[in-house]
């Protein structure tokens, strides 16, 4: 079985967020335990499996696995999957994916970018969970819940200086925590994303988190609907976001860095 490693939300290799992508050609999904083992073997934030979908609503089915669990929504591995399909000549313009989060679309443009259409994640203020400031190692300005996204958003003064205690964070979160602050130098906001509860201490670039960060920063920046976020992980990556009603459009590029055969 063919497998690729694709760096998403970047236009150069060894940056952005790497995802493994398996494009399946048979009917039905492989055994779930086997897919989880492949994800553990790849040991990336996400491994995506996609297959042709028989039905009127979507052309492809799509599932995502961290090294520890299957997740409901993933941005960078969706971008990587769309890039793989385009590279194989299987994506002409747009594609619809059937996922656990509903129908998601990806649209490829002539300039090499791919735009994902994801549901918006409204943010709701909540009291800070006890011990969260200590787990992040920084004072908290405000904390928000993201509903079905299963994350919390935390505003701080400086995301780059954080040195989190991942064991403590895992006990305080359902999926992850998006920590954010105002941006500079050409981007509107900056973030980092920690998800030790699902086996990802720090995710390099988290597309799905931007479905909450986009409305959060739009409100603070005068209702602007087009923003650019920079995720300040060690690899780093940019996500262009556009708010469109109850949807968030996430735009980025991707680069294939590795290709091979899975022998089992």
Number of domains: 2
Q: Which oligomerization state do the chains in this entry correspond to? A: single chain
End-to-end gap:
8 Å
The biggest sheet amounts to: 18 strands, mixed
The CATH architecture designation of the largest domain is: Roll
Q: At the first level of CATH, what is the class of the largest domain? A: Alpha Beta
* Contiguous runs where pLDDT drops below 50 for at least 5 residues: none
What is the average of the pLDDT values?
96
CATH fold descriptor of the largest domain: Diaminopimelate Epimerase, Chain A, domain 1
Superfamily (CATH H level) name of the largest domain: Diaminopimelate Epimerase, Chain A, domain 1
Helix and strand content put the structural class at: alpha+beta
Q: What is the helical fraction, as a range of percent?
A: 10-25%
The tally of helices reads 5
Would you report the number of β strands? 18
Q: Give the C-alpha Rg.
A: 18 Å
Molecular shape: globular
Order of helices and strands: EEHEEEHEEEEHEEHEEEHEEEE
Task: Provide keyphrases for this structure.
17% helix, Diaminopimelate Epimerase, Chain A, domain 1, single chain, 264 residues, alpha+beta, 18 strands, 18-stranded mixed sheet
Explain how this protein is built.
The chain is an alpha+beta fold. The protein has two domains: 2-119 and 250-261, Diaminopimelate Epimerase, Chain A, domain 1, CATH 3.10.310.10; 124-244, Diaminopimelate Epimerase, Chain A, domain 1 (Roll), CATH 3.10.310. Helix content is 17%, strand content 40%. It contains five helices and 18 strands. It has helices at residues 32-42, 76-87, 132-136, 166-172, 210-220; strands at 2-8, 17-23, 46-52, 60-65, 70-71, 94-99, 102-108, 114-119, 124-125, 142-145, 151-155, 176-182, 189-195, 200-203, 226-231, 237-244, 247-252, 254-261. It has an 18-stranded mixed β-sheet that branches. A hairpin with a 6-residue loop joins β12 (176-182) and β13. The radius of gyration is 18 Å and the shape is globular.
């Amino acid at each position: 079985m063919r497998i690729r490693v694709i760096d998403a939300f970047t236009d150069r290799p060894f940056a952005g967020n790497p995802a493994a992508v398996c494009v399946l050609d048979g009917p039905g999904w492989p055994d779930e335990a086997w897919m989880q083992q492949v994800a553990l073997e790849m040991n990336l934030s996400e491994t995506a499996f996609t297959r042709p979908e028989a039905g009127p609503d979507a052309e492809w089915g799509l599932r995502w696995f961290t090294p520890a669990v299957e997740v409901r929504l993933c941005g960078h591995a969706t971008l990587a999957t769309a890039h793989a399909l385009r590279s194989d000549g299987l994506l002409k313009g747009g594609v619809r994916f059937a996922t656990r989060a509903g129908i998601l679309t990806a649209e490829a443009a002539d300039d090499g970018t791919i735009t994902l259409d994801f549901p918006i994640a409204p943010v709701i203020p909540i009291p800070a969970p006890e011990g969260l400031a200590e787990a992040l190692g920084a004072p908290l300005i405000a904390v928000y819940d993201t509903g079905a996204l299963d994350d919390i958003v935390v505003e701080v003064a400086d995301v780059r200086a954080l040195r989190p205690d991942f064991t403590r964070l895992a006990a305080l979160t359902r999926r992850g925590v998006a920590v954010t602050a105002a941006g500079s130098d050409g981007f509107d906001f900056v973030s980092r994303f920690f998800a030790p509860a699902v086996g990802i201490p720090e995710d390099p670039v988290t597309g799905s988190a931007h479905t909450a960060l986009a409305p959060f920063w739009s409100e603070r920046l005068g209702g602007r609907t087009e923003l650019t976020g920079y995720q300040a992980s060690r690899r780093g990556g940019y996500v262009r976001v556009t708010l469109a009603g109850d949807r968030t459009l996430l735009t980025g590029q991707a680069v294939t860095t590795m290709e091979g055969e899975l022998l089992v």
